[in-house]
Structures are given as structure tokens and as C-alpha cells.
Amino acid sequence: MSVSSKSSNKPPSVTVVAAGREDLEGIASCHEAAFPGEFLTLLGSGFLRAFYRFYIDNPDGICVMAIDGENKRIIGLVAGGKPGLRAAFTRRHILRFLGTSFCKFFIHRRVRRRLGEHFVGLLRKIGRKIHLIPPEKYPPAPEEPSGTWSNLLSVCTHPDYRGCGVGKMLMEAFRIESGRRGYSTMRLSVHNDNDAAIAMYKKSGWTPILTVPSGTYFKRSVGNEP
């Protein structure tokens, strides 16, 4: 797939195309440059290659990348697809990366915090399911029939290319691919302290539908262009 951008600031040779296994090294490098010190980056390049390979190989996954053709460089990427894929990835690879996560837990405070959040969230989910703790006090996000919406999990732009419209191109590519696969809406979530991402999503036509302590959930119709 190739998507053009209306931004006059973008490098003239940038295109957005479907990612393949042969691109995993460049994808991991782009992610590391875009998110230095973040949770997934701290788990290492091996984890990132496995993570994005899962979305490339899975028929329900979406993984596209932005390339600067002049420099032959991957400068951005977006991944997502059918809701539940992240949980499926975790189930498949948890034993493989359990040792890495355990080591990083003692080294990096951010890893400890994120793993702690996941663990507490899991305990709360189990507690609510077996009625040991009351339901959440805030209202749930609006529900839609299964199979009608895609989940945007990750989008990033290399720091050297920010402000050039690359993020907008990637978001548009995800919208087009979601529509091609028959989805009518898209969802995503973001941590509340990520002001730059929240601003980009709002500018790209996404609407906040729920804010909870762990983050803000957004929704956007596939049929509406920004």
C-alpha cells in the first residue's frame, strides 16, 4: 500500500508500505529511537523484533511503515489490528521473555512500574470476575459489536522526521487498511501523561470516549477523513 500526504513539510521521498519480516531490524531500530527508555524498548531489540513479527505474520494484524526512499531508511511505523492480538502475543511469548523481563525488573524503574501496573490490573480483573471487588466506578467505554472495530496499538516516528507529517501518513494508512478489512471504527488508548500523542490523535480526527487513571481511550470512524 502507498499513501500520499497533504503535508508540505514532509520529505518528498517518503512512502508508507506494508512491513515484512526483512524489515524487522529497521523497525526495531526506529522504535528504539522513537521511544528511548520506554517499557518495550527496555525489554530489548529481540523482544521488539518478536513483537512486530507477530503483527506482520498474523493475518489479523496490521503493520505498515514509513520509508525515506532517498536514504533507504525506515522512519516510522504503525501496528495494530484485531482486538485481542496483544493478549495473544503475550500468551505465546510469555515464557520466552519471562527471564528478560525478570532481569529488567531489577534494573529499570520504568519496567518495574509497568509490570506492576499489569499485575495489579490482572488481579483487579480477576477480582471483579469472581465478585471479590466491586465494579469500576467510572462508566465503561461504549461497546460495539465484535469484529466491527480495529485496535491501533503502536505508532511512532523517528525523531529526525518529526513535524514532517509522517505520523499523519501512518495514521491515514491504518485507517485505509482498517476499512479495507471491513472495520467501521478504530480504537486506541494512551497514557494520560503522553501529551504529544494525545494532541496528535485529536488533530487526526480521534475522539476521546473514556478517561481512567491508567489512560485515555479514543475512537474514530473509518469512513471519516481528517
Structural commentary:
This protein is of the alpha+beta class. It has helices spanning 24-34, 39-42, 45-57, 85-107, 109-129, 166-180, 195-203, and strands at 14-18, 61-68, 73-81, 149-157, 185-190, 207-212, 215-221. It has a 7-stranded mixed β-sheet with strand order 1-2-3-4-5-7-6, sandwiched between helices. Strand 4 (149-157), helix 6 (166-180) and strand 5 form a beta-alpha-beta unit. The longest helix is centred in the middle third of the chain and has 23 residues, at 85-107. The protein is globular and about 55 Å long. It starts with 13 loop residues before the first strand and ends in a 5-residue tail after the last strand.
Notable characteristics:
single chain, 226 residues, alpha+beta, globular
Compile the SSE list and pairings.
Elements lengths: L13 E5 L5 H11 L4 H4 L2 H13 L3 E8 L4 E9 L3 H23 L1 H21 L19 E9 L8 H15 L4 E6 L4 H9 L3 E6 L2 E7 L5
Parallel strand pairs: 4-5
Antiparallel strand pairs: 1-2, 2-3, 3-4, 5-7, 6-7
Helix pairs in contact: 1-3, 4-5
